[in-house]
C-alpha cells in the first residue's frame, strides 16, 4: 500500500485532530495542516498526493482557495468535506477543480475508499445527492428548464440527463430508452457539448442545478426510429 502524502486544511482544530486520528495507520499520511490554504509551510520538494479541506469553517472563500491550490499544486487532487449538502456549492467546487465533495457523516470505510478513488483519478460526491434534491432536503432551489429549451437540448438528451442524475450506466440508459449503447454515446457527446461540461458527473450536477430531476416531464419513453445497431 503506497503512502499518499496528505495536506489538511480547516479552522476547526478539533476536527483536524479527529480526522488525523482516523487516518492514522491508513495509506493517507497527513504531513501538513493549517487553518487556511495560504498558511501552509510546505517543503518545495514535497508534492501532496491529496488535499483535504473542511469547508464548513470557511465556505465563502472555497472557490478562491481551490483556484490558489490549482495554481501552486496543480497535480494534487482536492477533496472537500462538509456538514451540509448544497448542490450549488458542490457544483462550484467541482467547477473550480475539486476532485471530491463528501459529507462528514460518511463512514470511515467509505471515506477511505472514496479517497483512494480520487487518488486514482476519479471524482467522488455523495451518491444520495439526487434523492436529497428530489425530496427537497438539499438547500438549493433548482431553476426550471426553460419551456423554449434555450439550451438547445433535444427531448432525448434531456431524458439521458435525467438518467445520469440517477447514476445510470450507458447500458442501463439504453435499456430504459429502448436504444442502443452506441446511440446513447452519440447523444451523450452532443449534450456534453451543448451544456459545456466535460464528463457525465458534471452533466448530472448541471441537470440537478437546472431542475432536471428524475421522473420529470422529459422522462417519457421516446423510441428512436430506426433503431441504431
3D architecture notes:
The protein is of the alpha/beta class and 229 residues long. Helices cover 41% and strands 12% of the residues. α3 (87-95) packs antiparallel against α9 (200-209), α6 (155-165) crosses α8 (181-195) and α7 crosses α8 (181-195). The protein folds into two domains: 4-132, 3-Layer(aba) Sandwich (Rossmann fold); 155-219, Winged helix-like DNA-binding domain superfamily/Winged helix DNA-binding domain (Arc Repressor Mutant, subunit A, Orthogonal Bundle). The protein has a five-stranded parallel sheet, with helices on both faces. The protein is elongated and about 55 Å long. It has helices at 13-23, 62-72, 87-95, 108-119, 129-134, 155-165, 170-177, 181-195, 200-209, and strands at 4-9, 28-34, 50-54, 78-82, 100-103. It contains nine helices and five strands, in the order βαββαβαβαααααα.
Q: Which characteristics define this entry?
A:
229 residues; alpha/beta; Rossmann fold; Arc Repressor Mutant, subunit A; 5-stranded parallel beta sheet
| Number of domain modules | 2
Say which CATH homologous superfamily of the largest domain is assigned. Answer: Response regulator
Number of β-strand runs: 5
Main beta sheet strand tally, sense and closure: 5 strands, parallel
The CATH architecture of the largest domain can be named as 3-Layer(aba) Sandwich
Instruction: Give the N-terminus to C-terminus distance in angstroms.
Output: 44 Å
Please state the average pLDDT score: 79
Sketch the topology as an H/E string, one letter per element.
EHEEHEHEHHHHHH
Beta-strand level of the residues, as a percent range?
5-15%
Helix content: 40-55%
